[in-house]
Amino acid sequence: MTLRSPMKFTILDRYMLTELGGPFAFGLAAFMLIFAATEILNIGKMVSSEHAPLWAALLVFLWSLPADVVLVIPMALLLGTLLSVQRLSGESELVAMKAAGITFARIVAPLLAVGIVLSFVTLFLQERVVPYANDQMIMIENNIINHVSAFNRDLTVSAPLPGGGRQVTIATAYEPHSRALLHVTLIQYDNHNVARQIAFADRAEFTANKWTLQNSSVYRFNPDGTTLAEPRIAEQEVEIGENPTDLVKRMSNDDPENLSRSEIAEMVRSNQLTPTEYRKYVTTYQEKLARPFACFVFILIAIPLGLRSIRSSGSTSLGFGLSLAIVFVYYVVMTICSFIAEAFVALAALWAWMPNILFTAIGLVRLRRAAQI
Questions:
Q1: CB neighbourhood size of 333 (10 A)
Q2: Which of 152, 173, 330, 340 could form a disulfide with 182, with the two C-beta atoms 3.0–4.6 Å apart?
Protein backbone atom coordinates (compact mmCIF):
# COMPACT_ATOMS: atom_id res chain seq x y z
CA MET A 1 0.00 0.00 0.00
CA THR A 2 1.40 3.37 -1.01
CA LEU A 3 0.67 6.65 0.72
CA ARG A 4 -0.37 9.59 -1.39
CA SER A 5 1.78 12.65 -0.85
CA PRO A 6 -0.26 15.65 0.40
CA MET A 7 1.78 17.86 -1.95
CA LYS A 8 0.92 15.85 -5.07
CA PHE A 9 -0.79 17.82 -7.82
CA THR A 10 -4.32 16.44 -7.99
CA ILE A 11 -7.60 16.85 -9.86
CA LEU A 12 -8.72 19.14 -7.03
CA ASP A 13 -5.72 21.42 -7.65
CA ARG A 14 -6.43 21.59 -11.37
CA TYR A 15 -10.07 22.34 -10.70
CA MET A 16 -9.35 25.15 -8.23
CA LEU A 17 -6.76 26.68 -10.55
CA THR A 18 -9.20 26.52 -13.45
CA GLU A 19 -11.83 28.24 -11.32
CA LEU A 20 -9.35 31.00 -10.46
CA GLY A 21 -7.99 31.38 -14.00
CA GLY A 22 -11.06 32.92 -15.62
CA PRO A 23 -11.83 35.55 -12.94
CA PHE A 24 -8.12 36.36 -12.64
CA ALA A 25 -7.88 36.98 -16.39
CA PHE A 26 -11.00 39.15 -16.17
CA GLY A 27 -9.52 41.16 -13.30
CA LEU A 28 -6.20 41.53 -15.10
CA ALA A 29 -7.94 42.87 -18.20
CA ALA A 30 -10.29 45.15 -16.24
CA PHE A 31 -7.61 46.78 -14.10
CA MET A 32 -5.18 47.04 -17.02
CA LEU A 33 -7.83 48.93 -19.00
CA ILE A 34 -8.11 51.42 -16.15
CA PHE A 35 -4.36 52.01 -16.08
CA ALA A 36 -4.05 51.95 -19.86
CA ALA A 37 -6.69 54.68 -20.21
CA THR A 38 -4.27 57.22 -18.72
CA GLU A 39 -1.46 56.05 -21.00
CA ILE A 40 -3.73 56.32 -24.05
CA LEU A 41 -4.44 59.95 -23.14
CA ASN A 42 -0.67 60.53 -23.03
CA ILE A 43 -0.35 59.02 -26.51
CA GLY A 44 -2.96 61.43 -27.83
CA LYS A 45 -1.10 64.34 -26.25
CA MET A 46 2.22 63.22 -27.75
CA VAL A 47 0.78 62.92 -31.23
CA SER A 48 -1.34 66.08 -31.21
CA SER A 49 0.65 68.52 -29.08
CA GLU A 50 4.23 67.28 -29.42
CA HIS A 51 3.83 66.06 -33.04
CA ALA A 52 5.35 62.69 -32.15
CA PRO A 53 5.19 59.89 -34.75
CA LEU A 54 2.27 57.60 -34.02
CA TRP A 55 4.49 54.52 -34.05
CA ALA A 56 6.83 56.07 -31.47
CA ALA A 57 3.92 57.01 -29.21
CA LEU A 58 2.61 53.45 -29.47
CA LEU A 59 6.04 52.08 -28.52
CA VAL A 60 6.08 54.33 -25.46
CA PHE A 61 2.66 52.95 -24.56
CA LEU A 62 3.82 49.33 -24.94
CA TRP A 63 6.99 49.87 -22.89
CA SER A 64 4.90 51.47 -20.11
CA LEU A 65 2.77 48.34 -19.72
CA PRO A 66 5.23 46.22 -17.65
CA ALA A 67 5.14 48.75 -14.81
CA ASP A 68 1.33 48.69 -14.89
CA VAL A 69 1.30 44.88 -14.89
CA VAL A 70 3.34 44.83 -11.66
CA LEU A 71 0.70 47.00 -9.99
CA VAL A 72 -2.27 45.15 -11.47
CA ILE A 73 -1.34 41.51 -10.73
CA PRO A 74 -2.13 41.69 -6.96
CA MET A 75 -5.41 43.51 -7.65
CA ALA A 76 -6.43 40.97 -10.28
CA LEU A 77 -5.64 38.10 -7.90
CA LEU A 78 -7.79 39.73 -5.23
CA LEU A 79 -10.75 40.11 -7.56
CA GLY A 80 -10.26 36.69 -9.15
CA THR A 81 -10.15 34.94 -5.77
CA LEU A 82 -13.25 36.77 -4.54
CA LEU A 83 -15.27 35.83 -7.61
CA SER A 84 -14.12 32.22 -7.80
CA VAL A 85 -14.67 31.49 -4.10
CA GLN A 86 -18.07 33.24 -4.24
CA ARG A 87 -19.15 30.96 -7.05
CA LEU A 88 -17.92 27.79 -5.32
CA SER A 89 -19.60 28.82 -2.09
CA GLY A 90 -22.82 30.00 -3.73
CA GLU A 91 -23.31 26.73 -5.60
CA SER A 92 -22.44 24.67 -2.49
CA GLU A 93 -19.41 23.09 -4.13
CA LEU A 94 -17.26 23.80 -1.08
CA VAL A 95 -19.83 22.05 1.11
CA ALA A 96 -19.70 19.03 -1.20
CA MET A 97 -15.91 18.94 -1.05
CA LYS A 98 -15.98 19.02 2.76
CA ALA A 99 -18.61 16.27 2.78
CA ALA A 100 -16.22 14.17 0.69
CA GLY A 101 -13.65 14.43 3.47
CA ILE A 102 -11.44 17.17 2.00
CA THR A 103 -10.27 19.66 4.60
CA PHE A 104 -10.81 23.36 4.02
CA ALA A 105 -7.04 23.97 4.19
CA ARG A 106 -6.49 21.44 1.40
CA ILE A 107 -9.21 23.05 -0.73
CA VAL A 108 -7.69 26.54 -0.61
CA ALA A 109 -4.06 25.37 -0.73
CA PRO A 110 -3.82 25.74 -4.57
CA LEU A 111 -5.02 29.35 -4.34
CA LEU A 112 -2.45 30.20 -1.68
CA ALA A 113 0.26 28.49 -3.77
CA VAL A 114 -0.69 30.70 -6.72
CA GLY A 115 -0.30 33.75 -4.47
CA ILE A 116 3.23 32.73 -3.49
CA VAL A 117 4.29 31.90 -7.06
CA LEU A 118 2.91 35.13 -8.51
CA SER A 119 4.57 37.11 -5.71
CA PHE A 120 7.96 35.94 -6.98
CA VAL A 121 6.88 36.47 -10.61
CA THR A 122 5.90 40.05 -9.76
CA LEU A 123 9.21 40.58 -7.96
CA PHE A 124 11.09 39.35 -11.05
CA LEU A 125 9.11 41.66 -13.33
CA GLN A 126 9.73 44.60 -10.99
CA GLU A 127 13.48 44.06 -10.79
CA ARG A 128 14.33 42.78 -14.27
CA VAL A 129 11.68 43.66 -16.82
CA VAL A 130 10.38 47.04 -15.63
CA PRO A 131 13.82 48.80 -15.42
CA TYR A 132 14.65 47.64 -18.96
CA ALA A 133 11.23 48.73 -20.24
CA ASN A 134 11.63 52.14 -18.57
CA ASP A 135 15.05 52.60 -20.20
CA GLN A 136 13.58 51.81 -23.62
CA MET A 137 10.69 54.18 -23.04
CA ILE A 138 12.99 57.03 -21.98
CA MET A 139 15.25 56.41 -24.98
CA ILE A 140 12.31 56.68 -27.39
CA GLU A 141 10.99 59.81 -25.68
CA ASN A 142 14.41 61.49 -25.75
CA ASN A 143 15.73 60.46 -29.16
CA ILE A 144 12.58 60.36 -31.28
CA ILE A 145 9.80 62.35 -29.62
CA ASN A 146 11.76 65.12 -27.86
CA HIS A 147 14.59 65.06 -30.48
CA VAL A 148 17.36 64.94 -27.90
CA SER A 149 20.75 63.99 -29.34
CA ALA A 150 21.82 60.39 -29.49
CA PHE A 151 23.66 60.98 -26.25
CA ASN A 152 21.36 60.74 -23.26
CA ARG A 153 20.93 64.23 -21.85
CA ASP A 154 21.03 62.84 -18.32
CA LEU A 155 24.55 61.55 -18.98
CA THR A 156 25.95 64.92 -20.04
CA VAL A 157 28.02 66.68 -17.38
CA SER A 158 29.41 70.20 -17.64
CA ALA A 159 32.05 71.24 -15.09
CA PRO A 160 34.42 74.23 -14.80
CA LEU A 161 38.16 73.71 -15.34
CA PRO A 162 40.66 74.90 -12.71
CA GLY A 163 42.42 77.32 -15.08
CA GLY A 164 39.21 78.67 -16.61
CA GLY A 165 36.94 77.33 -19.29
CA ARG A 166 34.82 74.23 -18.92
CA GLN A 167 34.72 70.52 -19.65
CA VAL A 168 31.71 68.71 -21.11
CA THR A 169 31.49 64.95 -20.61
CA ILE A 170 29.04 62.91 -22.68
CA ALA A 171 28.27 59.19 -22.40
CA THR A 172 25.74 56.90 -24.06
CA ALA A 173 24.99 54.63 -21.08
CA TYR A 174 25.77 53.91 -17.45
CA GLU A 175 26.48 50.46 -15.93
CA PRO A 176 25.31 50.45 -12.28
CA HIS A 177 27.06 47.20 -11.32
CA SER A 178 30.50 48.37 -12.52
CA ARG A 179 29.90 52.10 -11.93
CA ALA A 180 31.13 52.84 -15.44
CA LEU A 181 30.13 55.24 -18.21
CA LEU A 182 30.15 53.77 -21.72
CA HIS A 183 31.37 55.38 -24.97
CA VAL A 184 32.62 58.56 -23.33
CA THR A 185 33.48 61.85 -25.04
CA LEU A 186 35.23 64.66 -23.12
CA ILE A 187 35.48 68.12 -24.65
CA GLN A 188 37.50 70.88 -22.97
CA TYR A 189 36.76 74.51 -23.87
CA ASP A 190 38.89 77.55 -23.06
CA ASN A 191 37.65 80.89 -21.68
CA HIS A 192 36.51 81.90 -25.18
CA ASN A 193 34.39 78.73 -25.55
CA VAL A 194 36.76 77.28 -28.14
CA ALA A 195 37.39 73.52 -28.06
CA ARG A 196 41.03 72.84 -27.15
CA GLN A 197 40.96 69.11 -26.39
CA ILE A 198 38.71 66.14 -27.20
CA ALA A 199 39.07 62.67 -25.72
CA PHE A 200 37.20 59.54 -26.79
CA ALA A 201 37.12 56.44 -24.59
CA ASP A 202 35.38 53.09 -24.58
CA ARG A 203 34.42 53.53 -20.94
CA ALA A 204 35.15 55.51 -17.80
CA GLU A 205 35.25 53.56 -14.54
CA PHE A 206 34.90 55.06 -11.07
CA THR A 207 37.28 53.41 -8.60
CA ALA A 208 38.99 54.76 -5.49
CA ASN A 209 36.95 58.00 -5.80
CA LYS A 210 38.33 58.85 -9.24
CA TRP A 211 37.37 58.37 -12.89
CA THR A 212 39.68 56.43 -15.20
CA LEU A 213 39.28 56.41 -18.98
CA GLN A 214 39.86 53.04 -20.61
CA ASN A 215 41.33 52.83 -24.15
CA SER A 216 41.12 56.55 -24.82
CA SER A 217 42.25 58.69 -27.75
CA VAL A 218 43.14 62.34 -27.11
CA TYR A 219 43.30 65.19 -29.64
CA ARG A 220 44.68 68.61 -28.61
CA PHE A 221 44.07 71.68 -30.75
CA ASN A 222 46.80 74.32 -30.42
CA PRO A 223 46.17 78.06 -30.97
CA ASP A 224 48.43 78.00 -34.05
CA GLY A 225 46.09 75.51 -35.74
CA THR A 226 48.19 72.39 -35.27
CA THR A 227 46.76 69.21 -33.77
CA LEU A 228 48.48 66.82 -31.40
CA ALA A 229 47.03 63.31 -31.38
CA GLU A 230 47.54 60.50 -28.89
CA PRO A 231 45.61 57.66 -30.52
CA ARG A 232 45.80 55.00 -27.80
CA ILE A 233 46.11 55.52 -24.03
CA ALA A 234 45.34 52.41 -21.98
CA GLU A 235 44.34 54.27 -18.81
CA GLN A 236 43.99 57.95 -18.04
CA GLU A 237 42.68 59.61 -14.88
CA VAL A 238 40.22 62.47 -15.42
CA GLU A 239 37.96 64.68 -13.33
CA ILE A 240 34.39 64.63 -14.66
CA GLY A 241 32.68 66.78 -12.05
CA GLU A 242 30.11 64.27 -10.81
CA ASN A 243 30.38 60.91 -9.08
CA PRO A 244 28.21 57.87 -9.95
CA THR A 245 25.77 58.67 -7.14
CA ASP A 246 25.09 62.10 -8.61
CA LEU A 247 24.59 60.61 -12.07
CA VAL A 248 22.15 57.92 -10.95
CA LYS A 249 20.16 60.38 -8.85
CA ARG A 250 19.84 62.72 -11.79
CA MET A 251 18.92 59.97 -14.25
CA SER A 252 16.16 58.75 -11.90
CA ASN A 253 15.00 62.30 -11.10
CA ASP A 254 16.21 61.60 -7.55
CA ASP A 255 13.37 59.11 -7.16
CA PRO A 256 14.42 55.63 -5.97
CA GLU A 257 11.14 54.24 -7.28
CA ASN A 258 12.66 54.49 -10.76
CA LEU A 259 15.59 52.25 -9.77
CA SER A 260 15.91 48.52 -9.18
CA ARG A 261 16.83 47.22 -5.73
CA SER A 262 20.39 46.48 -6.89
CA GLU A 263 20.80 50.07 -8.09
CA ILE A 264 19.38 51.42 -4.81
CA ALA A 265 21.77 49.20 -2.84
CA GLU A 266 24.70 50.56 -4.84
CA MET A 267 23.60 54.10 -4.06
CA VAL A 268 23.33 53.34 -0.34
CA ARG A 269 26.75 51.66 -0.26
CA SER A 270 28.35 54.67 -1.93
CA ASN A 271 28.06 56.67 1.34
CA GLN A 272 27.41 59.77 -0.76
CA LEU A 273 23.74 60.29 0.11
CA THR A 274 22.52 62.99 2.46
CA PRO A 275 20.76 61.77 5.65
CA THR A 276 17.36 62.56 4.13
CA GLU A 277 18.22 60.79 0.88
CA TYR A 278 19.62 57.83 2.81
CA ARG A 279 16.34 57.35 4.70
CA LYS A 280 14.33 57.59 1.50
CA TYR A 281 16.50 55.15 -0.44
CA VAL A 282 16.73 52.57 2.36
CA THR A 283 12.96 52.66 2.89
CA THR A 284 12.25 52.20 -0.82
CA TYR A 285 14.79 49.36 -0.99
CA GLN A 286 12.87 47.44 1.68
CA GLU A 287 9.43 48.31 0.27
CA LYS A 288 10.34 47.05 -3.19
CA LEU A 289 10.91 43.60 -1.69
CA ALA A 290 7.71 43.61 0.37
CA ARG A 291 5.22 44.95 -2.19
CA PRO A 292 5.14 41.98 -4.62
CA PHE A 293 4.02 39.70 -1.78
CA ALA A 294 0.74 41.57 -1.70
CA CYS A 295 -0.25 38.84 -4.19
CA PHE A 296 -0.25 36.24 -1.41
CA VAL A 297 -1.74 38.63 1.16
CA PHE A 298 -4.65 39.61 -1.08
CA ILE A 299 -5.55 35.96 -1.78
CA LEU A 300 -5.44 35.25 1.95
CA ILE A 301 -7.83 38.16 2.56
CA ALA A 302 -10.11 37.33 -0.39
CA ILE A 303 -10.83 33.67 0.47
CA PRO A 304 -12.85 34.25 3.68
CA LEU A 305 -14.58 37.28 2.15
CA GLY A 306 -15.59 35.24 -0.89
CA LEU A 307 -17.22 32.59 1.32
CA ARG A 308 -20.09 35.01 1.87
CA SER A 309 -22.10 33.85 -1.10
CA ILE A 310 -23.67 36.55 -3.24
CA ARG A 311 -26.36 35.02 -5.40
CA SER A 312 -27.51 38.24 -7.00
CA SER A 313 -26.63 39.18 -10.56
CA GLY A 314 -24.50 42.03 -9.23
CA SER A 315 -21.92 39.78 -7.57
CA THR A 316 -19.22 40.71 -10.10
CA SER A 317 -19.68 44.46 -9.68
CA LEU A 318 -19.85 44.06 -5.90
CA GLY A 319 -16.67 41.99 -5.96
CA PHE A 320 -14.98 44.65 -8.10
CA GLY A 321 -15.99 47.39 -5.66
CA LEU A 322 -14.88 45.32 -2.66
CA SER A 323 -11.50 44.70 -4.34
CA LEU A 324 -10.97 48.42 -4.87
CA ALA A 325 -11.88 49.11 -1.23
CA ILE A 326 -9.38 46.52 0.07
CA VAL A 327 -6.64 47.81 -2.25
CA PHE A 328 -7.33 51.37 -1.12
CA VAL A 329 -7.09 50.46 2.58
CA TYR A 330 -3.93 48.41 1.96
CA TYR A 331 -2.14 51.27 0.20
CA VAL A 332 -3.24 53.79 2.84
CA VAL A 333 -1.68 51.55 5.51
CA MET A 334 1.40 51.11 3.32
CA THR A 335 1.79 54.89 2.94
CA ILE A 336 1.54 55.44 6.69
CA CYS A 337 4.10 52.70 7.35
CA SER A 338 6.38 54.24 4.73
CA PHE A 339 6.45 57.56 6.59
CA ILE A 340 7.22 55.75 9.85
CA ALA A 341 9.98 53.72 8.17
CA GLU A 342 11.68 56.90 6.95
CA ALA A 343 11.47 58.38 10.45
CA PHE A 344 12.92 55.22 12.06
CA VAL A 345 15.20 53.98 9.29
CA ALA A 346 16.82 51.35 11.54
CA LEU A 347 13.46 49.56 11.52
CA ALA A 348 12.73 50.24 7.84
CA ALA A 349 12.58 46.52 7.00
CA LEU A 350 9.98 45.87 9.70
CA TRP A 351 7.76 48.79 8.71
CA ALA A 352 8.06 47.96 5.02
CA TRP A 353 6.60 44.52 5.77
CA MET A 354 4.07 45.79 8.32
CA PRO A 355 1.13 46.10 5.83
CA ASN A 356 1.71 42.49 4.75
CA ILE A 357 2.03 41.35 8.38
CA LEU A 358 -1.18 43.11 9.45
CA PHE A 359 -3.26 41.91 6.51
CA THR A 360 -1.84 38.39 6.78
CA ALA A 361 -2.83 38.24 10.44
CA ILE A 362 -6.35 39.43 9.60
CA GLY A 363 -6.60 36.94 6.76
CA LEU A 364 -5.39 34.02 8.90
CA VAL A 365 -7.88 34.80 11.68
CA ARG A 366 -10.78 35.02 9.24
CA LEU A 367 -9.58 31.95 7.36
CA ARG A 368 -9.46 29.95 10.60
CA ARG A 369 -13.02 30.99 11.44
CA ALA A 370 -14.17 30.06 7.94
CA ALA A 371 -12.60 26.61 8.27
CA GLN A 372 -14.60 25.96 11.44
CA ILE A 373 -17.95 26.69 9.81
A1: 15
A2: 173
CA 286 → CA 260, 318, 348, distances in Å? 11, 34, 7
What φ, ψ does residue 354 adopt, rounded to 5°? -60, -45
Residues 350 and 289: beta-carbon distance below 8 Å: no
Three-state DSSP class for 273? Answer: coil
How far apart CA 359 and CA 356 sit, in angstroms, is 5
Contact residues for 223 (Cβ-Cβ < 8 A; gap 6+): none
CA distance linking residue 313 with residue 95, whole number of Å: 22
Rounded to two decimals, what is the model's pTM? Answer: 0.78
- pLDDT tens digits for range 177-213: 677 888 899 998 988 888 889 999 999 998 877 889 9
In degrees rounded to 5, what are phi and psi of residue 99?
-65, -25
**What whole-number distance in Å separates Cα of residue 197 and Cα of residue 64?**
41
Task: Kindly report the length of the chain.
Answer: 373
Rounded distance, CA 244 to CA 232, Å?
Answer: 25
CA distance 287 to 123: 11
- Are the C-beta atoms of 134 and 259 separated by less than 8 Å? no
Angle between helices 54-90 and 315-343 (to 10 degrees): 110
Pairing of strands 156-160, 166-170: antiparallel
3-state helix, strand, coil in the chain (%, to 5): 65, 15, 20
For the segment 226-241, the average pLDDT, to the nearest whole number, is 84
Backbone angles phi and psi of 231, in degrees to 5: -65, -35
Nearest Cα to Cα of residue 315 among 113, 90, 137:
90
Residue 173 phi/psi, 5-degree rounding, is -160, 165
Question: In 65-141, which ranges are E strands?
Answer: none
